[in-house]
Amino acid sequence: MAKKFYLLSLGCSKNTVDSERVARLLEEKYQPTTDPREADLLLVNTCGFIEPAKEESIETILELAQLKKKDAKLIAFGCFVKRYMEELKKELHEVDIFLPTEPYKEICQIFDLKRCNPAKRELLTPKSYAYLKISEGCNRTCAFCAIPKIRGKFRSKPVEELVEEANFLIETYGVKELVIVSQDTSYYGKDIYGKFALPQLLDELQKLSIEWIRLHYLYPAKEVYEIIDYLEKGAQKVLPYLDMPIQHISEKVLKAMRRGHSREFLEKLLNYAREKLGENSILRTTVIVGFPMEEKEDFEKLLKFVEEVKFDYLGVFKYYHEEGTPAYERFEDRVPEEVKEERKHLLETVQSYISEERLSRFLETEQKVLIDGYDEDFGTVPVGRSWFQAPEVDGQVYIELPVEERNIKLREGDLVKVFLTQQEGVDFKGNFLKKV
Question: Do 145 and 47 lie in a common domain?
């Protein structure tokens, strides 16, 4: 009987890609299982970005250690392990093997795998979409971030390799949407081509049989102007969806965060995006509250800015005082936890009204919806996303099939026309019209 492996991927979408590569490699000798108790090999791809992620990584490892059967091996890899490898080896005896990030060579050596090609992946997402990680590491020196220490310097993947990988995902799984991810999408190509090369990559990806290409994690830099112009000129398959984390707006906090730009730069860039792309575009961002330099008036500036700009989507993170970061060396973590929590809650509450109001422009319109699966409660209602909804972080569309069409079976990756009839926050309900 074939041996089995169980793999759990924690953290961000970039981690998901790493896990998908590991899963594909292991399938040479193991079968995947969703039950850790029957696995001969249990793997956890850990996240070590902020304190809650580190706690989740440890808790997950300990839970799996209790579930694993006799003689099964437990492997932990990823950011958390790489960051604290020596300490974990001393403390976490439940783990049989510790591996770093991107542990493809190690996996191939340990299990004597012959087909060691990490370009191929076993999708952990619905087959409707896949993440395309275009680089590793980061060259920025943001004060709150440990990623450069964990993942190293920025390293772009060559255009031809990415096109080959994208083609594999499309041909193997029927993927309809590619979600471009990296630590700093605005930097792509500079290290290997000597210039910003994202437009060239997008040109090549658009030649593939893909429906949508979505951009995530655009660092606010002058290169974003180039992307806005690219979108405006009719990038047919690249969605007018800009995910650009601003983190703050107070000059004092931006400077302490070492973001390398001013409030004025951000305002001009956001105005340019709205002016060029209009209402038929989406602006998503993330912000951090409770940074050591953030006084009450700094937070109020941020709140006012959010109310004025009206982002379509906004994620709020509390600052965590992470060892090994510039902020940890330079500042005391002086904003009380309850104040951080209060600011986060207030900002999220304000944004929830803004998002609902902004997205109401899509109500009672006909939209293409990409099917991701069925509802979690009963598994009977088809669920998907329209172009203005990114996977995992935005809302969804719940699809009502007409009585006479109830025998229609919609599958992951189907593209359908839907008339949006109801809105609840960032989610919509809609009537099925036809398959595209």
Answer: no
Q: Are residues 69 and 48 in the same domain?
A: yes
**Phi/psi at 292 (nearest 5 deg)?**
-50, -35
Tell me, yes or no, whether 250 and 299 share the same domain: yes
Are 252 and 282 in contact by the 8 Å Cβ rule? The answer is no
Chain-centre distance of CA 123, in angstroms? 15
Phi, psi at 282, each rounded to 5°: -125, 135
**Is residue 116 in some structural domain?**
no
Tokens of 215: 């951009």
Nearest alpha-carbon partner for 22 in 105, 134, 112:
105
pLDDT at 406: 64
Whole-model pTM over 0.70: yes
- Would residue 412 count as lying in a domain? yes
What pLDDT, on the 0 to 100 scale, is given for residue 49? 66
How many CB atoms sit inside 10 A of residue 244's CB?
Answer: 24
For 369, list phi and psi in degrees, rounded to 5: -125, 130
Taking the mean position of all CA atoms in its chain, how far away is CA 379? 25
β 135-136/129-133 pair status: unpaired
Report the first-to-last Cα separation within the chain, whole angstroms: 43
Sheet-wide strand order for 41-46? 30-32, 3-9, 41-46, 73-78, 97-98
Q: Which residues contact 403 (CB under 8 A, 6 or more apart)?
A: none
- Specify the pLDDT at position 156: 96
Residues of the chain with pLDDT under 50: none
Domain that holds residue 80: 3-110
Q: Check residue 405 and give its pLDDT.
A: 66
- Strand locations in 17-111 (E): 30-32, 41-46, 73-78, 97-98
Task: Supply the pLDDT for residue 66.
Answer: 84
How many structural domains does the chain have? 3
Q: What's the gap between Cα 273 and its chain centre?
A: 22
